[in-house]
Structures are given as structure tokens and as C-alpha cells.
Amino acid sequence: MSKISLIIGREYLTRVRKKTFIIMTLIGPVLFASLIVLPGWLATVEDTSELQIAVVEAGPDGQPVPSAEQKFRNVIPDRPNMKFVYLDNSALTDILKAFNATQYDVVLYLPQSIMSAANFAQVELYYRKPISVGLESHITQSLEKFLFNNKLAIKQIPPEVIQSLETKVSLSRINWKNWPNKEEDTTDMKRGVGYVSGFLIYMFIFMFGTQVMRGILEEKTSRVVEVIISSVSPFQLMMGKIVGIALIGLTQFVAWLMLTYGITFATKTLMTPDQQPQTTISAPAEMMNQSAPDAAGMQSQAAPSGSPLFSMMDIIFRQLGQMNLPLIIVSFLFYFICGYLLYASLFAAIGAAVDNETDTQQFMLPISIPLILGLFVMINSFLNPSGKLAVIFSMIPLTSPIVMMARIPFGVPTVQLLASAVLLVITFLGTTWLAAKIYRTGILMYGKKASYGELWKWIKY
């Protein structure tokens, strides 16, 4: 067995037996499964507590308005968890002074001057506890509709005329490459897969790259490395440590993938043990139908009915099945491994160059910036996966592992994919060569502050 293999085995077995590795391997899938299950479950949970909203109107002089003169009475309808109480002859200051002694949760102040507002009207909402966006939206929409109809009445335009002139447009996104078959729109799912893939690579590179750096730093400060270097070369030690920790990452990733799928599938099965297909369409499926009404020749959007959570999970699994999962998985593994090797070699060089963790900060910034930049460009890439910004940064090796994963679910030309992969591999070989130069000199260097100039000298040795 080669010396590198021995170092890889030592790194792997030492770290895989640690309690922190075992705990994170078991907790990780629960967290990932929660990201899939919780949004659907939370969508089914409604706030049943009822809010009492006092509505206070004031005339042009700011004085309370008697009920007979109120303009907005019953303009804002009640909802199951919102009850509007229209107060008569009540001053705003009196209500606010006794706010805590009343049964009201919110006070809505409406000056009648907004009836003559041209394009902008402002009302005031006083609350004791934070209020929901739904309440704000319900109030503003109701008032806007009332004021709009009032202006139509002043101009003697029937509201029906305005409604007859309105035309809503819904856009169905269909990939021409699949013509004449029309497939269900999966743009949101592609964005989700791209985001999760890119973010996982970003997280793994940082998490396991810093493990490489700290591992080397610990061995250097404890002088254990002097014993190891007597038997193996610095390059063999560096590569063994990098590859060993990469195998740890792959082991954890595969375990997370299998456990997450198992937990998600078990949750779906347990929550729908006796579900029978029904004729009604659940809320999520109905939403999808609304987003893609041009269903001629398109696959059926109606998911097997049941709870909204079941329908949402069914939609997720069905849309995942329509994507090119083999390409996504292979690309993820490639960019994860190559991206990690690229950055891990740089982290290894930093660990060998310094004597303590505090000194690593000055060298961490140049490595962190491309990673963080890649994360921002990845988010921008969802708006235009084929745009120049996304294409350029998916070619740059320091950002391509993150940005390219955001583009792959939408489809990337083979030429661009191959060019990105080749550039990443070449850069990885180059950074490994540079890191080995720094590592060879720095690993046995003690008591001397490393600077960028000093690192350049080590590279030229």
C-alpha cells in the first residue's frame, strides 16, 4: 500500500469515528427532510386566533365622525380571524390612551380626507403586538377597491365597464426542445434544485476545507508533523490529508442523501396511509393549474388528492422525476470533488504557512471572496441562467462549482459544460502545484510570520 493510501486511511478512520461526525451525519438528514416537509406542513397551519380591529374615522378637522356620516363603515369586510369594529364618536387619542384596557388588538385610523386623494392616500394602523402581512394586505386592498369605485361613481363610469376591459394574461413556459410534447412547468423546482446544489457545495467546501487547514495546523503546532515527515514527503502528506477528508465529505453526503430520502418517503407514506384518489383538486395542484392553464396536450396537473401536504410532496417528487437527475447528480459530484480539491489545497497551504489559527485570517479573505461572490452570482443566475454573467462565472474555476450547479437544471450547452470542467481540472492541478510548493517549505517553518512576499519566495524555491 502506498504512503498516500496509508495517510488517507488514517485521516478517514480517525475522523469517521469522531462523535461530532456521527452526530452531524444523523442530524443532517432530519434538517434536510424538514426543509422539504415543513413548508408544506406550515402551509396547512392557519392562525385561528381572532383579531379585534377598531376602526376610527375622523373628519377634515380631525374630530370624531358620527355613525351617520362615516364613509368607510363596512368597507373592510370581516374575515374568520379578523373582526372590524366601527366606532362611533370616538377620538383617536382617547382610544390610544386606553389601548391596553380595551379588547382591541389593532386600531385603524381613517381620515376622511383620503376620499379626495388623487393618487396616494395614507392611513394609520396602531398595534400592540406584531401584525401579519395578511391583515395589512386585506385593509389596503379593501380601501383601494372602495376608493377606486368611488372615483368611478364620481365620473359616472360603471365598474362593469372597467372590469370588461381588463384581461389577465398567464404565461406558460414550455421548453422547445421537448416539442411536440409539452411538459409540466418545473422552473421553480429547477431553481430549488440549483440553489440546494450550489449552497451544499459552498457549505462543503468551507466546512471540509477548513478541516484540512486546522488538521495541518494542529499537527504542525504539536510537532507531530516532524515525525510524519521523516517517513513521507510533504506532498504525500498534503494529498493524503486532502483526499482523506474528501472521502469523509462524500461519506457524509451519501449518508445524508439516503437518510433524507428515507425520512421524506416514510413521512409521505405515514401521513397518507389510506389515501384514495378523489375527483377534487387540492390547493397546490389548483395553483399549478392556474399557472399553466394551456394544458392542451400537456400532462395532467391534477395530483392525487388528499391533504395539501401530500399533494405538495407528490408534486415535488413528480417534478423531480421530470428533470435530468443523472446529469445533475454526476455534475454535483464532479463539481463538489473538484471544487473541494481546488480550495482544500489552498487551505492546506495556509495551514502549513502559519503557526496559529489567528494568523490564518489574513490569508482567508482571498479564498473566501470568490466563494461568497459565487453564491451571489448563483442567486442572480436564477433570473437568467443563460445570461452573460451566469455564463462567465460558470467558466471561472473559483466560482464555477457553485454557479454552474445553478445553471445545470435549466440545461447548459455541452460545450460550455465541458469547457467549465476542463478549466476547473487544470486550475485544480495548478493550485495543487502551488500549494505543494508552499506546503513543502512552510510545514517545517516555525516562529516566522508568513507574508505574501514570503509565500512567493517559497513558491520560487
Low-confidence stretches: 275-305
How much is the radius of gyration in Å?
31 Å
Counted beta strands: 4
Q: What order do the helices and strands follow?
A: HHEEHEEHHHHHHHHHHHHH
If you had to describe this structure to a student in words, what would you say it looks like?
With 461 residues, the protein is mainly α. The protein is built from 16 helices and 4 strands. The chain has a 4-stranded mixed beta sheet. The longest helix is centred in the middle third of the chain and has 38 residues, at 234-271.
Task: Provide key terms for this protein.
single chain, 461 residues, mainly alpha, 16 helices, 61% helix, elongated
Describe the SSE topology.
Layout: H1 3-16, H2 19-44, E1 51-58, E2 82-86, H3 92-97, E3 106-111, E4 124-127, H4 133-154, H5 159-165, H6 187-221, H7 224-229, H8 234-271, H9 283-291, H10 308-322, H11 325-353, H12 361-381, H13 388-395, H14 400-407, H15 414-442, H16 452-460
Parallel strand pairs: 1-2, 1-3
Antiparallel strand pairs: 3-4
Summarize the structure.
The chain is mainly alpha-helical and 461 residues long. It contains 16 helices and four strands.
